């Protein structure tokens, strides 16, 4: 019963995260002379790109190939943007929260899938970062910009931190889903703090 | 006998499509300070990129790894461009037809391979679109431009339409290779119409 | 004993090559408003990107997933750049030699892994080129530039040449590790000659 509840809860969070990731892709594609289908495809890549690379690396069938709802949710994201336009971004904070929740969930799912596959801790943390961040990297490559996560957002670092906390929880032998929940919350909280206080990593100055 | 004929016919179309895709890559690479081998490699990525991603997603061995003729055909495309230069593009219409035929074939092959793998209809159509379009997307990323299919060409939509018609044909229980043939023809005809009448999808205006 | 020595030697060269590739990624990322973690990730992609694609194509587990030392070596490269800065590039020639050695090793490892998998000669040479060059291509895509290997460096050609010499050695039935050693040396020597004498391939002029 409890497990079922948590599974359903995870599915809902997963779809909210997918929706928020798709919105971020479509939003960044807007105003760049990109047509509706192009925007949809960029939204889709943003939403499923990271998990796809994770699954390819793990030699698993990419998750969206077994569940067409990811394709549909991205369509709903495009529809929401077309119908609501600026109004949607009055809910900017809500979307940001979805995005942070999605990032947390994607990262920890990536880490625990990799850990189940027997990979070592640092490789798992890298796999979690890939799951959480690579969709956004692909989005930025497609709209021909240097990926945001390399230059502005504290995004990848959030994933790494969440991963470290997750493994500390495992080490402490916390029971049930506690490590997962704490890992996800770490990502969410740290992400919110980073944006709220405009935290930035130091830039690597030119060495040429 | 009949099947053998169709197989041979498919192989010829496949190679013509590969040639046309390679030409499109090499052509877009020209005049950008890219050297001959670079142009060859961009042509190769254009020709085999989409099918490679499809095969990786399906956990199959990428088709060109089992048949080095794709590597050779791309070399012939480079040779044709070097030897014939502008003359080649007097045959612009012929090349465009090859390209449209290639797009149709690649798309339907991608869809039917995915359908054979037991994937759901919308996932199959996405896989067909990936097969037909991702080579061109990679080409544009490599020459550092926002992919053409996102902003100008009705290209991805053509694949989706061909896919939908293909599945309608399957639903109607058309026999033999009829669904494949009709699917491919749909892509070709719609692609020609789209270019002839300068059809464009509406652009997504800025929502920031 | 001899085999063990060669294995250890290969591991050391592999790590030196990884280090040099990571340095090249981090160096190109510097001065572009990219933060430290972003630079690290670009260095990592440069170092492991080519081999990762090779392993995905061969349906093998990407090498770095089984050995976290690649993640650590890239960290050491970042550290070296931060601590030593310009001083590091007084050793520019040393780094260039590491890079050339890495290129040679990565290429021949890619070719021999592919040959073991039963692929044909030209496909193997392409796989070696992918192993040696794709990390650098990804690096340039991420920093939003047309890949260097397409426009300046004689880089891919070096891999192809090394591959051809390697297969000639196999044909001549040279014993032991001689084909591998000669193949790697060919890449290194040709790479040094190409840079020393500013060799360039002819550019493909505009044909539009």
Notes on the structure:
Chain A is globular. In chain A, helix 5 (92-116) packs across helix 6 (121-142) and helix 5 packs across helix 8 (156-171). Chain A has one domain. By secondary structure, the first copy, chain A, is mainly alpha-helical. Helices cover 75% and strands 0% of the residues of chain A. The first copy, chain A, has nine helices and no strands. Chains in contact: A-B, A-C, B-C. The interface between A and C is medium-sized, with 31 and 36 residues.
The succession of helices and strands of chain A, N to C, reads: HHHHHHHHH
Return the domain count of chain A: 1
User: How would you state the average pLDDT of chain A, rounded?
Assistant: 91
| Tally of contiguous helical segments of chain A | 9
Number of strands of chain A: 0
Oligomeric description of these chains? homotrimer
Topology:
The structure is a homotrimer of 208-residue chains.
Chain A: H1 2-29, H2 36-57, H3 69-84, H4 86-90, H5 92-116, H6 121-142, H7 148-151, H8 156-171, H9 178-196
Main attributes of the structure:
208 residues, mainly alpha, homotrimer
Short description:
3 copies of one chain form a homotrimer. Chain A has 208 residues and is mainly alpha-helical.
């Amino acid at each position: 019963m409890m497990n079922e509840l948590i599974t359903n809860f995870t599915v809902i969070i997963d779809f909210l995260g997918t929706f928020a990731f798709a919105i971020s892709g479509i939003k960044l594609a807007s105003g760049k002379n990109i047509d509706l289908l192009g925007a949809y495809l960029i939204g889709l890549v943003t939403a499923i790109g990271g998990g796809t690379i994770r699954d390819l690396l793990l030699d698993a069938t990419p998750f969206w190939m077994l569940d067409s709802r990811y394709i549909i949710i991205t369509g709903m994201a495009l529809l929401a943007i077309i119908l609501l336009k600026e109004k949607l971004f009055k809910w900017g904070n809500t979307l940001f929260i979805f995005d942070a929740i999605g990032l947390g969930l994607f990262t920890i799912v990536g880490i625990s899938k990799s850990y189940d596959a027997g990979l070592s801790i640092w490789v798992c943390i890298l796999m979690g970062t890939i799951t959480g961040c690579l969709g956004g990297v692909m989005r930025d490559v497609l709209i021909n910009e240097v990926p945001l996560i390399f230059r502005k957002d504290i995004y990848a670092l959030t994933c790494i931190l969440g991963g470290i906390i997750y493994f500390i929880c495992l080490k402490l032998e916390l029971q049930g889903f506690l490590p997962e929940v704490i890992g996800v919350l770490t990502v969410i909280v740290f992400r919110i703090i980073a944006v709220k206080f405009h935290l930035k990593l130091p830039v690597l100055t030119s060495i040429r």
